[in-house]
Amino acid sequence: MKSLIKKHWPVISVIIIYFITIFILIVISTRMNHGHLIYAVDDAYIHMAIAKNFVQYGVWGVTKYGFTSTTSSPLWTFLLAMTYFIFGINEMAPLILNILFGTLLLIISHLILRKYVPNQLIIFTILLTALFVTPLPTLTFIGMEHILHILLTLCLVYSYIATLSAITRHRGYILLMVFALLITMTRFEGIFLIFVICLIFIWQKQVLYSGILGIMGLLPIIVYGIWSVSMGWYFLPNSIILKGISPILNLKGIAEWISVINLISRIYTNIPILILLIFSLLLLTYYIKKGISNDNKKIIIAIFIGTTLLHMQFVRIEWFYRYNAYIIFFGILILSSTIIDLKPKACLQKISWKNSKLYLVGLILIAIISFPFAKRAFTAIQLTPQATNNIYEQQYQMGRFLAKFYRGDAVAVNDIGAVSYMTNIQILDLWGLGNLELAKLKMNKGYNTEQIYNSAKKMGVTISIVYDEWFDYCGGIPSQWIKIGQWKVSNNVVLGENTVSIYAVNAAATDQLISNLKSFKTDMPKDIIQSGKYMEQN
After folding, report:
1. Sign of the C-alpha dihedral, residues 523, 529, 532, 536?
2. Furthest-apart CA pair in the chain: how many Å?
3. Is-contact 143 95, C-beta < 8 A?
4. Cα 300 from Cα 79, distance rounded (Å)
5. Main-chain phi, psi angles of 95, to 5 degrees
6. Which end of the chain is more exposed for a tag (fewer CB within 10 A), N or C?
7. Residue 109 and residue 295 in contact, taking contact as beta carbons nearer than 8 Å
8. What letters, b where the CB count within 10 A reaches 16 and e where it falls short, cover 257-296?
9. Using CA atoms, how far apart are residues 177 and 214, in angstroms rounded to an integer?
10. Alpha-carbon span 526 to 124, nearest angstrom
11. Residue ranges per domain, the chain?
12. Which residues, 6+ apart, have CB-to-CB distance to 259 below 8 Å?
């Protein structure tokens, strides 16, 4: 046991730190949220709702009333469904799965680093940096598939590296194809990494393997797309279609979509990724110029650069550290593992006061470069409990209110996660993630106030809880709707807006909605600022 601990103490120590951090965040978060385990983004509950409905009703949808192509991570949603099938519907499953995948990620990262970094203290430092800068504790509390995506990214890259060795080549090819299948089932942008490796295969004149790898990566997307189309939905999930930025189909639109200037602008505004890219390019240049024979490191750096550029070009949003997390972790791991190659000879000798100015300049440069990463790590840990509190005070309260007073009714909302998981209501998703009709209108630029009104009337919607500001671009909320109240949260760090407005969609629903809100107001967290007609009446 002692020898095992001595041999693996870096990863054991970092895993313990990871567990302690999660425990502290759980304690702080649950205290803020009156004993409830709450995830840091509403989207986590979309996966939980689909998994719940799949297990209970055999329906792959945000409600039990029909199929919805809302998830862009079929594997994560399916894993949740399997845990629900075995252990019952519960709110702990995303947290436990993420802790398990986070632990496995640290173990695999340690095994990789041991091949390239002989110093255990340096390995410990790299793992600890990756833990907090990525940041894994925050991703754990987001309750989604991003840690699994990072894990599969590393597995895919180093399976490819295994194909470069005569000893592990056969096993490497098999693992490469398996992980290619899994990564696009987890997140569709895994295709960026697969595309880069396919190009390298072609460069190595292994066209057959490039083709097979590409097919394996595309297969989950194609199968899911065919299933979605057969159910009457788009080929791609609504979450990708509506959140992504598609090109305008003319020369100017396509030119702007693939514009290098726009790419540089996006990288420039993301300082940690900018730093990682600069160092990657410098390292690749260094290896080529010095004629260093370690092709593995050169290829891994090239894969990182290519994947990062594709990601920054085509994934143009970032929301609470989650979309570029796999880039950050991957970059830290591969760049840090090259430190032994770049160690100056002076560092191997006894420190001399004659070089004190050189050391001082070096420390200042290290501090400047490290600052954006340290800021990211500190801010993420600091904001995570508050993010869970935001979700608790807004979407979670919406779910409680609707579950108590509007069971089985039709309700219009623009955030569908918690309300779909916590209730069995019929949901008109005004943002379009869970509604095909409105998604088509948005895609065809036909979405307006009149369409919102007609869709709500057609579905028999009685009340609506929405962000008013989100609909200004299309003409605003229908004038026929009657605003009864508003809930406002303070210290918002993750919500789309601070305030949600509650409407009676028709006059007949007004009195009942006022009565329900008056009955519910004393059951709300005290920090929520309530206002509107129901607060003005005795």
Report:
1. positive
2. 85
3. yes
4. 30
5. -65, -50
6. C
7. no
8. beeeeebeebbeebebbbbbbebbeebbeebeeeeeeeeb
9. 9
10. 44
11. 2-373, 386-536
12. none
Residue 91's SS3 state is coil
Q: DSSP string of 358-412?
A: HHHHHHHHHHHHHHHHHHHHHHHHHHHHHHHHHHIIIIIHHHHHHHHH-TT-EEE
Is there a contact between 317 and 323 (Cβ–Cβ < 8 Å)? yes
Q: What are phi and psi of 426, to 5 degrees?
A: -85, 125
Using alpha carbons only, give the angle 221, 222, 227 rounded to the nearest 5 degrees.
100
pLDDT, residue 536, reads 83
Q: Note whether 455 and 438 are within 8 A (CB).
A: yes
3 state DSSP class of 36? coil
Q: What is the pLDDT of residues 318-330, one digit of tens each?
A: 678 888 999 999 9
Residue type, 359: Y
> Within 10 Å of residue 363's Cβ, how many Cβ atoms?
10
Residues of the chain above pLDDT 70, percent: 91
Name the residue type at position 438: L
* Runs of H (alpha helix) within 244-294: 251-257, 260-268, 271-290
Strands 499-504 and 426-429: unpaired
In eight-state DSSP terms, residue 65 is T
Which string of b and e fits 9-36 if b means at least 16 CB within 10 Å?
A: ebbbebbebbeebbeebbeebbebbeee
Amino acid at 388: T
- The lowest-confidence range among 411-420, 434-443, 493-502 is 434-443
Half-sphere exposure of 254 (CA within 13 A, CB side): 3
The Cα angle at residue 297 between residues 268 and 303, in degrees rounded to 5: 50
Token code pair at residue 178 = 């398996």
**pLDDT tens track for 286-319:** 888 776 656 778 889 999 999 999 988 887 666 7
Handedness of CA 230, 233, 238, 244 (dihedral sign): positive
Q: What is the identity of the amino acid at 463?
A: I
Over residues 493-507, mean pLDDT: 93
Structure tokens at 247: 């090109």
